[in-house]
Amino acid sequence: GGATVALTVRRLTEAGIPVMGHLGFTPQSVNTIGTRVQAKTADAARALIEDALLLEQSGAFAIVLELIPAPLAQAVTERLRIPTIGIGAGAGCDGQVQVLHDLLGLYTDFVPRHAKQYRRLADEIRNAVGEYADEVRTGAFPTAAHSAKMDESLLREVLSQIDGERDITGRQ
């Protein structure tokens, strides 16, 4: 946020706690604004620019710009001395971030428009987990190669002591 959290950002940074701002779509607001592009009107774009400047003045070391129009993200970036990190905000930001699950194709039902799937690993992972579960059920895993070893004579000695103590106390 911007104006609503500026005082908090100032206090945190003055206490030596680094703060990265986050403007546009914020995951905590998904239930109120959905997952649509933000700041598309003149008033909303102006407010976002003002919020970005306020976050910088309050001591934020960087700002994530999420799901805002690319030209607006570039305009914000050009006006700040701190870096901007875009997610669905175009190439005009200083850096980019993608959600790892999107990048690796771990979700198959929904792929955000701004995400690029470099791999589709969901099926591979599902198959690997299925193979693992099957091998555990059938006893094919783990094998001796996947287990730690112990000197047999040492184990016999320990078990003999334990079993002898159990006999003395009457426990079974």
What can be said about this structure in brief?
With 172 residues, the chain is α/β, with parallel strands linked by helices.
Q: Mind explaining what this structure looks like?
A:
The model has no long low-confidence stretch (mean pLDDT 92). Helix 3 (42-57) runs parallel beside helix 4 (70-79). With 172 residues, the protein is of the alpha/beta class. The protein has helices at residues 6-14, 30-33, 42-57, 70-79, 100-103, 122-138, 152-169, and strands at 20-24, 62-66, 84-87, 95-96.
Radius of gyration, in angstroms, nearest whole number: 28 Å
Strand sequence of the main sheet, in spatial order?
1-2-3-4
Give the N-to-C terminal Cα separation: 64 Å
Shape: elongated
Number of strands: 4
Mean pLDDT: 92
Count of alpha/pi helices: 7
Keywords:
single chain, 172 residues, alpha/beta, four-stranded parallel beta sheet, 4 strands, elongated
Describe how the helices and strands are arranged.
Elements: H1 6-14, E1 20-24, H2 30-33, H3 42-57, E2 62-66, H4 70-79, E3 84-87, E4 95-96, H5 100-103, H6 122-138, H7 152-169
Parallel strand pairs: 1-2, 2-3, 3-4
Helix pairs in contact: 3-4
